[in-house]
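Internal ticket #5521
Category: modeling
Description: The requester needs a full-assembly model to guide mutagenesis choices. All entity lines are attached below as received. Residue total reported by intake: 378.
Assigned to: D.W.
Attached entities:
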Amino acid sequence: MARVGLTTERLARAGAELADEVGFAQVTVSALAKRFDVKVASLYSHVKNSHDLKTKIALLALEELADRGAAALAGRAGKDALAAFANVYRDYAREHPGRYAAAQLRLDPEAAAASAGGRHAQMTRAILRGYDLAEPDQTHAVRLLGSVFHGYVSLELGGGFSHSAPDTQETWSRIIDALDALLRNWPTA
Amino acid sequence: MARVGLTTERLARAGAELADEVGFAQVTVSALAKRFDVKVASLYSHVKNSHDLKTKIALLALEELADRGAAALAGRAGKDALAAFANVYRDYAREHPGRYAAAQLRLDPEAAAASAGGRHAQMTRAILRGYDLAEPDQTHAVRLLGSVFHGYVSLELGGGFSHSAPDTQETWSRIIDALDALLRNWPTA
DNA sequence: ACGACTTGCCTAAAGGCTTTAGGTAACTGC
DNA sequence: GCAGTTACCTAAAGCCTTTAGGCAAGTCGT
């Protein structure tokens, strides 16, 4: 009965890898147990239940994404910051589709409060420092940026833009150009 | 052994209702059988398997959404058309969250080809007739609009904007204003 | 109207995932 | 080296999926 050394942390990390390999929806307590070559019941000492496991993976992904965002924003401003931050989302989703899907999990209020969600909002707001927007337009713009990033990435990942010219990289660049132009010229009510 | 009169069609329709009530992820062959007061195995004459059922619900939702979109676009142009079409997505998602989630299901190529996906793209392109955009910018714009609509709606539905001022209706209106302004003034490469 | 065919719904059964209860063996520290 | 903790185990119940095979309720030809 050799001990494997399970921890909540290691389970979440392995769950994230599993998600990237087989899809977040296919992440299961059972599959994770197989990956550690351990009986299923053993995981229940480290994780409350299946939903708890998924939540932990989601929190991990949000954390990673926020870290990457912060790194990208450091020392950048204006359109440069906008583009770098946008690319963080897109690249992360392409490198880690399962984790990105996990980050979209609807969290209960408690988990949401403990998540890196706030950091994401703060960073988006920081990008807008390079543009001249007062409240409430700033909040509207934060929400727009969040919508575009998330919407584009999830449509692209889901194959919504597949096999049609022009290629998605080109579109992505032009969308960032367009957002930059829009933020510099935000219509007043 | 009274016959209930199951059909693929009725199953998809009832599945869509079930999705709106308990969430698309909770739609299960088993739950659907209970709803018809019929044994689970009976459904397998009308539906290949669980995934097939979900696909049929997704196709139904895409169809409904396209129908609403077409109705909204009839007799409208420019910003008027843009706003009406955008509201179709948002309203549909709010009225039918389960169906909307179903519409996001990643379809295999065969199902995707048979879906109303093409109609959606065509309608978005039709909206752009009110603006002066040549290819390839038109395609970029189609993708941007799709991203914003889907991204905003799914973030709002997921509670991403909850409990923070200003309210989401206000943001939604201002985002449509912003998109209109952007399309009238699309930045040239 | 009645027999034959079709088919809609059934029972039975196997396999997988989740979750809980309770046991045993491996580490930890005095 | 012993006591206590804890990591992992076995066992079992419950629910969902899916397939195989059966009977009765419809439908159709004559």
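Resolution: model delivered.
Comment from assignee: The mean pLDDT of chain B is 95.
Ticket closed.
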